[in-house]
Amino acid sequence: MALLLSRDDQISQDLIDEHDRFSTSSSRCIQFEIQGALIPDQNKFEYQSTRQLVRTIQGFVDSGAAQEHSVYFHGVCDAEFEVIERKLRAAELMGMVHFTFEKALNAAILRIRPGSAHHIIASTFGYKFTRKMHAIRGHGEYSVSPFGATIFRIPGVRSTEGDQSFKFRPRTRRGQAAWPSVMVEVGYPGGMKPPRSDAEWWLLNPQDKTRFVILFKMQRDPFALHIECWMMVETGCHQTRQTPNRIPCCVQDFDINAAGYVTSTEGCTKLEIPYDAIFDVLDPDSPPLETFSFSFDELSEFAVRLFEDLS
């Protein structure tokens, strides 16, 4: 059973940054620059060839460090992107690399994540999400399509990759290029700035097609899981060139410790996804749900099973 934690039992604050839960800008390109500014100078390179890029990534993987590394390459042209992807797949490194490419800057950020933890977290949540959706009256196996780690592109502008994504109602989102309505990103121990920047990217770029982003951040020794849910929210301001009337924002958060105890600094009592954030078209044969939710008990069970799989 999930229980609320007392202040003395709260999860280590090393897992969470209390800042940056609101986006400070509606600019799309600036999110890439923010991520780039977080990368140390020794991890920034001028792009020379796909061979150099692959060897650089292989070096981080071979170092044996279990932590996430971010690498910045400048001078990457759009035509090189698919070649890089093929070379990484050939070297069996693609599953360890998270891509973001910004054409306007001729630059790419690659987050290198050794091991399988991020795949296990994303796929386990994807399984629970899909099963829960199938159990709702009026929905079935074709209501949701999980896409796993997939690269999505805005042609000639930018590309990025998520850890898990969900597309709903095939009649409105057909084909592999169609954007997901719900996106999942998984981070390694450390600050929350990179995954939060990812959440802003997903909410700002695909013209309101991606409407809900779930972030997972796990720590080990002891195990703990931090979850954030991001959406676009109204600012209450009149829309101007400098002042957006909607910005990305963290609207829910959850912390789960090794024993499965759950708490929320936002005062949330369950993880809720608005129904209209999931579906483009509401099905008249489906029940009039306002939200799709996971209770504290369900979040606790998910986390404990996850910790067991990763121990």
Question: Could you provide a short overview of the structure?
Answer:
The protein is an alpha+beta fold and about 300 residues long. It has a domain at about 5-25 and about 115-310: tt1808, chain A (Alpha-Beta Complex), CATH 3.90.1570.
Walk me through this protein's architecture.
This protein is α+β, with helices and mostly antiparallel strands. It has a domain at 7-25 and 116-310: tt1808, chain A, CATH 3.90.1570. It is 26% helix and 28% strand. Helix 1 (29-37) runs antiparallel to helix 5 (193-204).
Radius of gyration: 19 Å
Order of helices and strands: HEHEHEEHEEEEEHEEEEEHEH
How much of the polypeptide forms β-strand, as a percent range? 25-35%
Number of helices: 7
Shape: globular
Task: Please give the CATH architecture of the domain at 7-25 and 116-310.
Answer: Alpha-Beta Complex
Number of extended strands: 15
Rounded to the nearest angstrom, the distance between the terminal CA atoms is 21 Å
Key words describing this protein structure:
26% helix; tt1808, chain A; six-stranded mixed β-sheet; alpha+beta; disordered N terminus; 311 residues
